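Re-run requested by the PI after the first attempt was lost when the workstation crashed. Everything re-entered from the original request form. Ligand of interest: NDP.
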Amino acid sequence: MARFSGRTVLISGGARGQGAAEARMIVAEGGRVVIGDVLEEQGRGLAQELGPNCVFLRQDVTQETDWAAAVAAAEKLGGGLHGLVNNAGIYIPKPLMETDKALFERHLAVNQTGCFLGMRAVVPAMERAGGGSIVNISSTAGLRGSPQAIAYSSTKWALRGMTKAAAIDLARLGIRVNSVHPGPIETDMIGIWTNEHRAKRLGSIPMQRTGTAEEVARVVLFLLSEESAYMTGAELSVDGGVSL
Ligand code: NDP
């Protein structure tokens, strides 16, 4: 199946983890990918692995100028910018009383403002391409309460609302906006969990296991592709039943 034949997708925070899995699958399906990330070595390595249909650039999602450069790189790659995955994120878990203003605002800057800037940055290019699909990576922490995650949760709930507001604003331009809500996924992000915390979290998952980056990527590719042509403003959980 070549759902992405010649089409270009921009993935923020795509040097590793879920974003990297999505990049691999899109290129395998004939698409082109621009990966932005602050992790330069891993990003360059992935671009080298994927060949001429993948470009890496250093991108800090909190910087509007970095978004402009990423969109320019996507249009240069050719085929038109048809997709954006707002995937970059940070997760530094602390309970409410150990979360200071700086930590709270750092989460807002990367997870929430980064997503806002990304959606704004791609719209003109997607209009030039004749339409597009934006996928915002939220979390089950954006659907329910999550332990030790006051700062992270606030941003992931915000992404859910921002997705629906943008979906309404952009529908007339042929641009769809949906959110994906992963549960615990085996990437470096949850490598910081202690064994005790991990056991507790595993116990709360009906399917009794964590997910893989590829399991999330398959859902993201569905939302990026024409297979989901009549879906906008939707939220899809990929979580082994955590949010039930
Ligand atoms: P990773 O940490 O592997 O990927 C996130 C990437 O974003 C990292 O490469 C990270 O770099 C990068 N990043 C951080 N800050 C910025 C920035 N300012 N600009 C650009 N890139 C940045 O984890 P995942 O692949 O798991 O995470 C992908 C998304 O999925 C995130 O939005 C996360 O919140 C969400 N998610 C993850 C879950 C999980 O259990 N893994 C569960 C639910 C949602 P660096 O390492 O330097 O910070």
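Saved to the shared folder this time. The domain at 8-238 is CATH 3.40.50.720 (Rossmann fold).
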